[in-house]
Amino acid sequence: MRELLRFTLILISSLVVVGGLHYTYFLIRDLPFSLAEFLYGYGINFVMALIVYGGLLYLARKQSTYLGFLFLAGSGFKFAIYFLLIDPVFRADGQLSFTEFFLFFIPYLICLTIETLAVIKLLKKIGQ
């Protein structure tokens, strides 16, 4: 439980910092974007990262030998969610713009990086 809380705090703080920079960049460059889509992209990535990492923590106690495969399955899950829930919202106007693309993939990359580091730490802990 402590690992999940630590992961959540790191994830939230990272997304707030990067999201602030990302938002500021869009404002400075005067790029057209929807605040709702911005929050949707960051929010759904946050939730997906929590689901994947929480699932990995739960399964690490039961079947730690397959954690790498489960991590890859989590990435597949996230891409499925993208194509089911996010892509249709961004393509509602018939196209996927530069800003819409980065509204999802910047928080995706931040979450993926933090998840990867957390899984490496978890695997090291299990291996000891």
Secondary-structure map:
Layout: H1 2-28, H2 35-62, H3 67-90, H4 98-127
Brief digest:
This protein is mostly helical and 128 residues long. Helices cover 85% and strands 0% of the residues.
Please provide the count of β strands. 0
Helix content: over 70%
Measured by DSSP, the beta-strand proportion falls in: under 5%
Structural class: mainly alpha
**Low-confidence segments:** none
Number of distinct helices: 4
Q: Estimate the global geometry from the Cα principal axes.
A: elongated
Number of domains: 1
Radius of gyration: 16 Å
Alpha-carbon distance between the two ends: 19 Å
Mean pLDDT: 89
Give an account of the 3D structure.
With 128 residues, this protein is mostly helical. The longest helix has 30 residues. It has one domain. The two termini are 19 Å apart. It has four helices and no strands.
List keywords for this structure.
128 residues, mainly alpha, 85% helix
